């Protein structure tokens, strides 16, 4: 209808966003939610949970051979994180832009990582990097989501 076309002209897409344990511990859940809602992205699911080692290893399987893998799994299972499914036009790309570069020192000021983090591992948020990753990650975290 005309009203919804004024809000968006593209087909909606979903992505998995995590406010990582460092972001939760620092009280940045509201800040991340504010930024993605202000951008126009919509929340579809949200849950505070502590990951098992198995889920963490599955989520980061593509990094299993990297030297930082063991530390990354320790970090991501080290406390509760906020798992979100977010929907909107070009959401995957839109959230990656809000998050900023992986290395927070290189991330532009104005991005979440650029404004709130200094270390590459403890970089506050995760966002799926492709439609294939998004489908896999949404299913891993929210298997019952329709
Ligand atoms: P992304 O989260 O921006 O997509 P990836 O390269 O997929 O970045 O890395 C996944 C996560 O692994 C990063 O967000 C960060 O927490 C961690 N990480 C990436 N590279 C390094 C590193 O060189 N040292 C320590 N941790 C890293």
TrEMBL record:
Family annotation (InterPro entries): NDK-like_dom, NDK-like_dom_sf, Nucleoside_diP_kinase, Nucleoside_diP_kinase_AS
Swiss-Prot/TrEMBL cofactor(s): Mg(2+)
Catalytic machinery residues: 126 (pros-phosphohistidine intermediate)
Nucleoside diphosphate kinase-like domain residues: 12-146
Annotated catalysed reactions: a 2'-deoxyribonucleoside 5'-diphosphate + ATP = a 2'-deoxyribonucleoside 5'-triphosphate + ADP; a ribonucleoside 5'-diphosphate + ATP = a ribonucleoside 5'-triphosphate + ADP
Gene3D superfamilies: Nucleoside diphosphate kinase-like domain
Major location (coarse): cytoplasm
GO cellular component: cytoplasm
CDD domains in the record: NDPk_I (cd04413)
SUPFAM superfamilies linked: Nucleoside diphosphate kinase, NDK
Entry EC no(s): 2.7.4.6
Chain sites annotated for binding ATP: 20, 68, 96, 102, 113, 123
Pfam annotation, one family: NDK
Top enzyme category: transferase
Any one GO BP annotation for this protein: CTP biosynthetic process
Keywords annotated in UniProt: ATP-binding, Cytoplasm, Kinase, Magnesium, Metal-binding, Nucleotide metabolism, Nucleotide-binding, Phosphoprotein, Transferase
Quaternary structure and partners: Homotetramer.
Entry function: Major role in the synthesis of nucleoside triphosphates other than ATP. The ATP gamma phosphate is transferred to the NDP beta phosphate via a ping-pong mechanism, using a phosphorylated active-site intermediate.
Protein family according to the UniProt entry: Belongs to the NDK family.
PANTHER family given in the database record: NUCLEOSIDE DIPHOSPHATE KINASE (PTHR11349)
Protein's name in the database: Nucleoside diphosphate kinase
Record organism: Blastococcus colisei
